[in-house]
From TrEMBL:
<dbReference type="InterPro" id="IPR001672">
    <property type="entry name" value="G6P_Isomerase"/>
</dbReference>
<dbReference type="InterPro" id="IPR046348">
    <property type="entry name" value="SIS_dom_sf"/>
</dbReference>
<keyword id="KW-0324">Glycolysis</keyword>
<dbReference type="InterPro" id="IPR035476">
    <property type="entry name" value="SIS_PGI_1"/>
</dbReference>
<comment type="pathway">
    <text>Carbohydrate degradation; glycolysis; D-glyceraldehyde 3-phosphate and glycerone phosphate from D-glucose: step 2/4.</text>
</comment>
<dbReference type="GO" id="GO:0004347">
    <property type="term" value="F:glucose-6-phosphate isomerase activity"/>
</dbReference>
<feature type="active site" description="Proton donor">
    <location>
        <position position="335"/>
    </location>
</feature>
<keyword id="KW-0963">Cytoplasm</keyword>
<protein>
    <recommendedName>
        <fullName>Glucose-6-phosphate isomerase</fullName>
        <ecNumber>5.3.1.9</ecNumber>
    </recommendedName>
</protein>
<comment type="pathway">
    <text>Carbohydrate biosynthesis; gluconeogenesis.</text>
</comment>
<dbReference type="InterPro" id="IPR035482">
    <property type="entry name" value="SIS_PGI_2"/>
</dbReference>
<comment type="similarity">
    <text>Belongs to the GPI family.</text>
</comment>
<feature type="active site">
    <location>
        <position position="364"/>
    </location>
</feature>
<keyword id="KW-0413">Isomerase</keyword>
<dbReference type="Pfam" id="PF00342">
    <property type="entry name" value="PGI"/>
</dbReference>
<comment type="function">
    <text>Catalyzes the reversible isomerization of glucose-6-phosphate to fructose-6-phosphate.</text>
</comment>
<keyword id="KW-0312">Gluconeogenesis</keyword>
Amino acid sequence: MERTHLVLSSGFTFDYTNLYGQGLVTQTDVAAIGERLMAAHQAMEHMRSTGEIRGHLSKDGAPEKVLFSQLPYVQADHLNSPASIARLKEFGQSLRNKVDAVVSFGIGGSYLGNKVLFDVHCGEFWNSRGAEERQGYPRLYFSGNNIDPRRTVELIEQIKYEARLKAVHAGPHDGAYRAQLVVISKSGSTLDTMSTFMAVYDALRRETPAVEVQVVAVTDLAEGAGETLLHKLAAEQGWPMFSVPDGVGGRFSIFSEVGLVTAACIGFDIDAFLAGARAMDEACRQEDIWRNPAMLNAALKYLAAEKYGQDIEVFMPYADNLKSVAEWYVQLLAESLGKRTDRAGREVFYGRTPIVAVGTTDMHAQTQQHQDGRKDKVVQFVKVAAWENDPVIPDVFPSAGKLSEISGLRLSQALDAAREANAAALRSDGRFNATFVLPEMTAYHLGELLYLLALSVAYEGELADVDAFDQPGVEAYKRLLGPMLKQHSP
Ligand SMILES: O=P(O)(O)OC[C@H]1O[C@](O)(CO)[C@@H](O)[C@@H]1O
């Protein structure tokens, strides 16, 4: 019998019907890399118990641990401990009904995961809702994920506008508008993050007493020679700090204080999120590839790329609020696996190119290319099985035949029919695709999905024999940037 689905006890499903079988990745292909899969699996076990990944070096060329797989396990001696989680939650509670808006500054791994948590928990209209509807949690804006002058000014203006509005409606006991700035940077000196932070910080502080500004820094808290600029500044200014732990790269940091600080600010369920990640990690400890979602996902995508030239992955959730998962995945896949050399230093130019898409939106934009363009893609769908709110399409225009026909359907049924049709059409032309199914859009299932993707790239790094945890390629432009900034300075 052909294998088609891997279903976890939570209901989380990896449906690989259209990725594995006749004309796709075959049983023979998987069997042929059996030994390498076992070696990859052992490497993952070794990483879990020691933090060691063969060949992984830090930016400075020294061996560096890889510790993201520890994050779901909250323990006294771990990076996430009961005390650290309690401190995060206290921080979140301290903002409730006191702080009007949080501005989270960061880029790459110091932003993308935070945006995922915000989108999944808050949706699109959080910032336009009243404080009561937000259960006292603040509005939340992002900045620093681009050095865009217009957006930065508009954000400053928006906050000033909110402050003016608050002042107009304030009662005698209401204080000034309070803005909590959260500056997230592992290295502590990223241009994008720090330039926008300084612009916003300065502009808002000039609004005193209308705006009260407080700052929290999230950075590498190492002391001594490697101390980050942000750490130093926070210590000087007396800003509270959270940590970007050693051994956790930006793109894996959503399960650390980097992501969890945003979770705390909006009341996102941290425990359920980590529990989902933990359950996925446990499932991925199985040696049997057909029961191990990360090993299976990595093996099928690796084989699709290496053997069949399918080296583009279109990540296509059918849900607006999951678009940012696709954006998060872009960094994860691109920085982890886009590598010039293998671990022996030979040029391999490995990597699969990630593409962001959203269903149904991009069926009307990208699908033409997925269906008729080069046969070089795996389309990875994400389906949400049950929606919390799911309107029925009403029969408003009974005389309009075609419109009347769709009435009675739930929107989710129409959405799912569209996804199924897309998958079937791709399959009918021998085009590779797969689906992750989240039973519901909850913190738990999100934790499962994101952890699965993080561990998958670690497996794929082993299969491709590249270091999935460094990013030497981004240093090339960074080396040129310093002198260029000097040329531009007045
Ligand atoms: O957290 P930092 O140090 O500001 O870095 C932000 C991002 O920049 C990168 O170093 C790439 O430029 C990413 O790996 C990282 O997530």
